[in-house]
Design a protein that fits this description.
mainly alpha
Length: 259
């Protein structure tokens, strides 16, 4: 299977996987780079196989960056644990329905949400610069569980902007951008795993290609996480805004093509 790819195509996919890991580790949005590259490089394969392979690559990079964040950014392990299972179950549910629902109708809604996210974040430069929890521990955990389940379902059924929505949701709960990104990575591992379970059971993951490109994705993720930890919430916020604007453009183009 890997031998079916030319050296040029493999190099192209390696660079894309590296860039995706780098960007995703800082503020999410790695799928903006990796998925389109896979659709181009693996054009001879079925779309569902490309989608499944994309998740199999991403989970390794996301796990690597999550581990680095956990070492340097202290977050409540009980809060993280509470979010993991709902995110996993939500993603499994979403991925199971992905082939049955017309996902093109999600695009206009997602587009509006992303524009609102970008405007809100841009107009509040102080947002997420320091941690200022807005709820009691119990209330924050319940909200976090609901958020994880909903975004997990969204990631399984559609996907674009998952990292951005997770980061902003955590900032909304009172976390600084750096901590929010650290939490988002752990939740994202869980949503990726949920999708992989569904895709794997259906036998649509190109494991040889996925595991090979995962090497580049992990390398990018490690560098990205280190840059984010060094640059702090200020850097994460800037990259977050850039990624969100890029997502707006991508989803807008896809929406206009559909309608």
């Amino acid at each position: 299977m890997l031998s079916d790819l030319s050296l040029y195509t493999l190099l192209f996919l390696f660079i894309a996987a590296f860039g995706a890991g780098l960007i995703d580790a800082i503020a999410g949005g790695g799928g903006l780079i990796q998925l389109p590259a896979l659709l181009i490089g693996l054009s001879d394969f079925k779309t569902v196989e490309v989608l499944g392979t994309n998740k199999s690559i991403s989970i390794f990079g996301t796990t690597a960056s999550a581990r680095l964040y956990r070492k340097s950014v202290k977050t409540d392990p009980k809060f993280l644990l509470a979010l993991v299972i709902p995110a996993l179950l939500g993603s499994i549910g979403g991925a199971s329905l992905a082939s049955r629902l017309p996902t093109q109708y999600f695009r206009p809604v997602v587009l509006v949400l992303l524009i609102a996210v970008a405007i809100y974040t841009f107009n509040k430069p102080e947002l997420g610069q320091i941690e200022a929890m807005k709820h009691s521990t119990k209330h924050r955990t319940l909200l976090g569980i609901s958020i994880a389940a909903i975004i997990g379902f969204y990631d399984g059924i559609f996907g674009p902007g998952t990292g951005s929505f997770l980061v902003l949701a955590m900032v909304g709960l009172g976390f600084a951008f750096l901590s929010a990104s650290a939490i988002a990575k752990v939740v994202n591992v869980s949503t990726n795993l949920g999708a992989i379970i569904v895709f794997g059971l259906n036998g649509v993951i190109l494991w040889q290609i996925g595991l090979t490109l995962a090497i580049a994705n992990v390398a990018g993720a490690i560098i990205g996480a280190k840059l984010a930890i060094r640059g702090g919430s200020t850097l994460v916020r800037k990259v977050f805004l850039v990624v969100t604007v890029a997502l707006i453009i991508k989803v807008a183009l896809d929406t206009f093509k559909t309608f």
